[in-house]
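Run log, item B.
One chain of 293 residues. Sequence copied directly from the ordering sheet:
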Amino acid sequence: MRASCPQTGIEKASIIYKAPVEGRITRLMGLFEDWESIEKIGYIRSSRDYFVYCALEHDAVYCHFGQATMYVDALLNSDRVDNISAAVAGIDHPAYDVFRRTTDRRAPHNVVASGKDILKNVELFGYSLEYHDTFQPKFTFLSSHDADIYKNMPDVNIIYPGGQASDGANGYSRIQAYFQYDGEKYYRYQYGGPHIDEVTGNQLTCDNVILQYCYGEVRDENDYLAFGCHGDNGLPVQVFTQGKVINGTWSRYSDNDPAVYLDEAGNPIKLTPGKIWICIIWADYAEDVELVK
């Protein structure tokens, strides 16, 4: 929602996941590679289990402030997750000195952390900063030998994950989210203007956009949602890189395995080296997606 924008430090994220939540808006999760030196990351909100499963694809330390306790506390408290959480209900082993509230915004949109404080608690909890033994990188990247392999794929210059209407229930529509390709990068927009980083003032850009279509359902009367993050059911994926779209399918076999993206010929889809946005698309609202050449 608008009150949480702009975020701070988000420009440093290498990968950003975006997914619908209750209220039919979206939340994002950034994955940071060189995070230890970041002075301020925010604004940090509560966890949903499907974001945790996405973090597990990358063997990441997972940081959050609160959670939908009835649906995610068992996972967060398990030894499957290197979890950094505030001292909130449902957390067995909180990190007491990571998160702080700023004074220039109202709660709950004002929680920040620093890489330095996160690192202290990673060491306190004994979490490894090395990948686990069976770790597999999620992405395959283009090299100089195959730079033109997608030249005959369809052109797409604007990507509307929730369509252009502002009253849809798909999560993206109400924040008016879209990406526009300028010949080099995909520029991110929301709420009728550029999506910027509070620290730098720069508009967020990326080199690849992925629409990953997932089974979704409403869990309860509070509109808490669930999304299928695993399976070999051939659900669609659309990968946008260098102004092209590659259609394919995705599969994922376990918590510690990443989702695999294959093109229509069964080959791994290759990305442009650089930043990546992954938008979880509720399959029931697939027809809302709009692509503009």
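Observations after the first pass:
- The radius of gyration is 18 Å.
- The chain has three helices and 22 strands.
Flagged for discussion on Thursday.
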